[in-house]
Amino acid sequence: MFSQLVESFALSKLLTESPAKLKRFREKLLAWYAERGRDLPWRRTCDPYAIWISEIMLQQTTVAAVIPYFERFLDRFPTVQQLAAAEEADVLKLWEGLGYYSRARNLHAAAQDIATNHAGSFPRTAEELQSLKGIGRYTAGAIASFAFDERAPIVEANTQRLYCRLLGERGDPKSTGVQKTLWQFAETILPKNDCGLFNQALMELGGTVCTIESPSCGDCPASRYCVAARHDLQQQIPAAKRRSKPTPLVDVTVAVRKDDRYLIRQRGLGEWWTGLWDFPRLTLDETLLTRITLPSVPARSSRDQPNLFTREPVCEELRSTIEQFICDQTGVSCRLRGAELEVRHAVTRYKIRLFCCLADYQSGRLSSDQPLKWVRVNALSELAFSQPGRRFADRLIEIS
DNA sequence: TAGACGTGGCA
DNA sequence: TTGCCAAGTCT
């Protein structure tokens, strides 16, 4: 035990306080990155705008998911001025399916900020960058180092895991104390020059070698400096975080038909999928659920494999609840039809049973105090199963 | 400071 | 099927 403590201490000192070891570590890391680093679209450019877009898209999102969105976005908005001049709705539509839509709204707002308050030229320092909406400490450091080679440290999921293992840090990585240690470490190991390249190399190592489940320590240029590898603590470090169980919910969407069109509404502030278009949608409250019988599930269902139609009618209380909801939310009265659909979705912390009802317009005018539209749609059954963010708008015709 | 915010892939 | 996770930020 004592010898382990001595060794942990000695090793962590080696990396951060021995200039020779640190130099060797940097050389080995950069050599490894030159040989093994992936060729990704945003690594081929020094354009701060493109790097910014990629960094925002990559927040909590996999590389594979981002690539097509990144290409489309830059194709549509090649410069910060063009993004600033866009309608927010167009930016959101381009973002649809990526999730975390506030990223898109912040991106748009920040572009306008740059266009009007920074004379259209991109802020060059991490400090300035962090004053923009949606750019926190990590993203500011990433853009400043990748695009301008500022000596700015970075800590995000990949590097956090890497640093924790290198240091043998067993505490909760999210705790204030450990965060302070990690940011300090990130700054200490940064070389004088080529910081952008160095940061990319750190992230790449964390992302492809120093993985969560089975890190490839045999291929790691830093394993000889790694406390976790020395003591076989890769599974214990970093400390696992706990997640709460998803909350079960029952949602109902209603496709109200008038001639060949259906009623949709734009979701407002404080709701999920803010700014995206959706069928009117309500969450059934628990007391109602105790009184009614929901249509049974006809077949296998999962997040992405919706059930086929079921023809079970809803009970009278549910019918009147839904019809009243439509009237309150949209101003029109409607009559539910006999066909109801069901599907199950999991949305992050919620496990949602989703019923999709068809209804016929009866009478009334659309409320003028919120965005509502009658639109033609493609493939109603697919659309009814969709959530706003899951390519919903792609199935609408004549949305604007 | 913990919880909110989305979606898709993988075991 | 379920749970966990992915280049975080904001409140």
What's the SSE blueprint?
Blueprint (H helix, E strand, L loop, with lengths): L1 H16 L1 H18 L11 H11 L4 H14 L3 H6 L2 H8 L6 H16 L8 H4 L7 H12 L8 H11 L8 H14 L5 H14 L18 H4 L16 E12 L2 E6 L10 E2 L2 E3 L2 H6 L24 H15 L2 E15 L2 E14 L8 E6 L2 H6 L2 H5 L3 E2 L3
Parallel strand pairs: 1-6
Antiparallel strand pairs: 1-2, 1-4, 2-3, 2-7, 5-6, 7-8
Helix pairs in contact: 1-2, 2-12, 3-4, 3-9, 9-12, 10-12
The protein binds a DNA duplex (11 and 11 nucleotides) through helix 3, helix 4, helix 7, helix 9 and helix 10.
Give a brief description.
The chain is an alpha+beta fold.
**Might you state the CATH topology name of the largest domain?**
Endonuclease III, domain 1
CATH homologous superfamily title of the largest domain: Hypothetical protein, domain 2
Distance between the termini: 69 Å
Secondary structure class reads alpha+beta
The total number of structural domains is: 2
Number of strands: 8
CATH C-level of the largest domain? Mainly Alpha
Helix share, percent: 40-55%
Spell out the helices and strands N to C. HHHHHHHHHHHHHEEEEHHEEEHHE
Write down the overall mean pLDDT: 88
Largest sheet: 8 strands, mixed
Radius of gyration: 26 Å
Pfam family, one: HHH
Family: Belongs to the Nth/MutY family.
Protein name: Adenine DNA glycosylase
Cofactor: [4Fe-4S] cluster
In words, what does this structure look like?
The protein folds into two domains: 2-230, Endonuclease III, domain 1 (Orthogonal Bundle); 247-397, Nucleoside Triphosphate Pyrophosphohydrolase (Alpha-Beta Complex), CATH 3.90.79.10. It has 400 residues and is an alpha+beta fold. 45% of the residues lie in helices and 15% in strands. The protein contains 17 helices and eight strands. Strands 1, 2, 3, 4, 5, 6, 7 and 8 form an eight-stranded mixed beta sheet that branches.
